[in-house]
Amino acid sequence: MLEKYLDINPEVKEALESGKAVVALESTIISHGMPYPKNVEMARNVENIIRSKGAVPATIAILNGVLKVGLTAEEIEYLGKTKNIIKTSRRDIPFIAANKLDGATTVASTMIIAALAGIKVFATGGIGGVHRGAAETFDISADLQELAQTNVAVVCAGAKSILDIGLTLEYLETQGVPVVGFKTEELPAFYTRKSGFKVDYKVDSAEEIAAAIKAKWDLGLKGGLLVTNPIPEQYQMDYDTINKAIEDAVKEADEKGIKGKESTPFLLAKVKEITGGASLEANIQLVYNNASLGADLALELSKLK
Q1: What are phi and psi of 93, to 5 degrees?
Q2: Omega before 37 within 30 of 0, i.e. cis
Q3: Residue 194 · residue 239 · CB < 8 Å
Q4: Model pTM score
Q5: What is the CB neighbour count within 10 angstroms for residue 99?
């Protein structure tokens, strides 16, 4: 029955069947995260970085209702150019599939589809989390619940700094999701290497992370593991500048009544506008950095039997 909905690219299928390293990639960043043609250029570069490390990239999206694992260059171009692609999380998948629509996958839905295909590692920009003001709004990303229940390791640059990072970490702790810092004891905050919050464990190699992931799943402890990888120093933004830009963007979103799935794209676009485009360049560089670590992690995991 699953075959009716799931289409795995032949290159990805062959890699999975022969035990090679595969890295899942999301598509919301293409359709909702960046303007065209930067988005398509970024997506192609991310795939090339993963290939250069000896792993196979699998960009994930839903096209004409089909859950696609591994997109062609034409499909990536289509996602980057087309307006009104639906931002798709867990709750949306059945409706997008049943109605044969096009959906760009968030962290949560990419994890689900990666797990269906048997992919263990997923590289992204930043995860969603508990939004500022969540005590009143209950605005909490489905990404966090997905990390608690789906066996995929997620490599990211920390929680997006538009979020309430302290509450996001509290939620992950409650759900038993390990938050790991790659060569850092401090949780990175997407555009910057610092947040003022500590990670659960600092690790210094992809091999060390792979061993912990294997132990977790061998023990039947379901759910993912969050690997936080700081943006390279030369690309990080000034901590005070970015926080001021975010506060201004959050205030404007509140005034305009922008909520739910629309809030993150609005806030990211607003921060880009306020920072004169500097945040977009930082975003691109941190994604490249995560793709590189994701490939290293997938290669190390593929060696463990």
Answers
A1: -55, -50
A2: yes
A3: yes
A4: 0.94
A5: 10
Helices (H), the chain: 10-17, 28, 38-52, 73-81, 93-98, 107-117, 134-137, 142-149, 165-174, 206-218, 239-256, 263-274, 278-303
The single residue listed with the structure tokens 């190390």 is 300
Instruction: Please report, for residues 2, 32, 103, the alpha-carbon distance to residue 67 in angstroms, rounded to integers and kept in the order given.
Output: 10, 18, 9
The neighbour count for residue 241, using CB atoms within 10 Å, is 15
Q: Average pLDDT in the 119-130 region?
A: 96
**Taking a C-beta distance cutoff of 8 angstroms, is the pair 203, 209 a contact?**
yes
Which residue, among 49, 129, 36, has the nearest Cα to 290 in the 3D structure? Answer: 49
Report helix, strand or coil for 65: coil
Task: Write down the pLDDT at residue 257.
Answer: 86
Question: Which of the residues are catalytic?
Answer: 26, 160
Beta-carbon count within 10 A of 279 CB: 24
3-state helix, strand, coil in the chain (%, to 5): 50, 20, 30
Altogether, the residues listed in the chain come to a count of: 305
Tokens 């032949």, residue? 10
Give pLDDT, residue 205.
Answer: 98
What are the structural domains of the chain?
A: 2-303 (3.40.1790.10)
